[in-house]
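Database export, one record per block. Field names are fixed; values are copied verbatim from the stored entry.
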Amino acid sequence: MRGEFLDLAGRRLYYYAAGTRGVGDPVLFLHGFPTSSYLWNDVVRFMPDGYRLIVLDQLGFGRSDRPDGAAVSVSAHAARALAVLDTLQVPRACLVGHDFGGAVAQWIAVHAPDRVTHMALVNSVGLDAWPRWPTRAARALLGIAYRLPAPLLAGEAYASLLRGFADRDEGRHALDHFLRPFAQRAGREALLAHLAAQRPDETATLALGSVRAPTAIVHGARDPFVTGAISRGLQAAIPGATLDVIRDGSHFLPLDAPDRVAAAMSALLTR
């Protein structure tokens, strides 16, 4: 894996590249809220050979810069994802999105269809249904952010997010990565900015019936945040979409079942 920063309009976005170049189209991984590229590490290891894999920290998350006033709506993140592909000279790619990242992928598939070869939505938000848990979790987090990590481990926010993992030990390790960037003042401001920008109308108005890219929807049945009804609704709205339900998976499915997420993506890439 090779990581580096891209300077886009004065803000740095971190990504790492993996995989092997071959006949397959590149794959861009888009994480959700409040995670980072770390979410996909194990999935990347199970991906088949012959694909260039691009794993991004979206603005405000992971190693990327804080927004500092930049827009963090679905459409703004989508525009930056397209700029990343432009900078890396990738004309078309398979988009893989989890949670909020799935909304970003949907926006691109509708508004820039020629840039999308395939799309995978993993426990993705969409339509007019977004979970309310991030607001509650973030409010709890902000009150203890200056005292990370120990108070966070026992805090209400930590417990709320931990519910989204099938493997609680894996969840504790992952949350340390995901929540650390929000421990400072700029991080808290980034968190609030993303919460303020979460507008279901941005996905409710997407013309998903126009999506041409072969689409696979993968859902962890034990997800306490994004319901199965959302995934079924996305399948119904996107022509030809498939739905793979992983019975023992929860919300953070790329960490719960990376081999099965990668298998679903491998099948998608052959369609």
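Remark 1: The radius of gyration is 17 Å.
Remark 2: Residues 74-87 form the longest helix (14 residues).
End of record.
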